[in-house]
Amino acid sequence: MRKVLALLSFAIISVSGVNAQDDVRNIIYMIGDGMGLASVSMMQLENNFETTIFDRADNVALTKTYSADNRVTDSAASGTALSSGVKTNNTYIGVDKDGKSLFSVAELAAMRGMPTGVVVTTYLQHATPAAFYAHCISRHDSATITRQLVESDMDVAVGGGMTLFREVYGDNECVEEALHDVGFDLVQSMAELEAVDGDSRVMALLADKEVGADSGDYLADATNEALRLLEARSNGNGFFLMVEGSLIDGMGHANDAEAMQREMEGFMAAVEVAVMYAEQNPGTLVVVTADHETGGLSIVSNDADFNLSEQGVSYSFATKGHSASMVPVYLYGTGAERINGVMENSELGAKIKSIVDNGSVESL
Ligand SMILES: [Zn+2]
Question: Which pTM value belongs to this model?
Answer without folding.
Answer: 0.92
